[in-house]
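Appendix B. Chain record.
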Amino acid sequence: HDENTERQLSSWLKSTNVQLTALAFDSGHHYGFLHRLDVPSSGLILSARTYEAYYELQVQLRTGDVIRDYSVLCRGWLPPLRGSIETSVYWTENTPTCAGGQGKPSHTLFKTSAHAWSGQRALTLAAVRILTGRRHQIRSQFSHIGHPTVSDGMYAAVATFRSDAALCARNFLHRSSLSFQDATGERHEV
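Structure tokens predicted for this chain:
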């Protein structure tokens, strides 16, 4: 817990009427949450109710069996095709993630869904799937290829970020789908 405790999902979960297990109070196991979203982003989060499910889902995350899909509105005109971004990413504690060069390998797939204009700005809506789960992976990689996420105050130029504010008040990155297997091997998609 820190200065943002009241904004954390664990605090929200504890305030609901959902029947909680011991895992929801265990900080050493991230209160049951399997992964995170960047603060300015939105979307689905996977949480386990039992320790057994937590460890099984951790294995699925590490082996790429948890599928995470996103809707991303980015600056510029991505070609109308499927694409792949494979770069290394690196970061230190208090700096933005850098794509390209040294670091951990990261792999992102995308498919252009639509193009639009907002005034003089070209925009692309992309369906995105991450095959790895690195810190700020999508945001840093799309910025690296010259297509920062709309309203991204960390990876877009200051002038770009300010002009995007009229279009969208927050980072336009939304986790739209999650898929995983339960203990019986049945795949679930949300």
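Further analysis of this model is presented in Appendix C.
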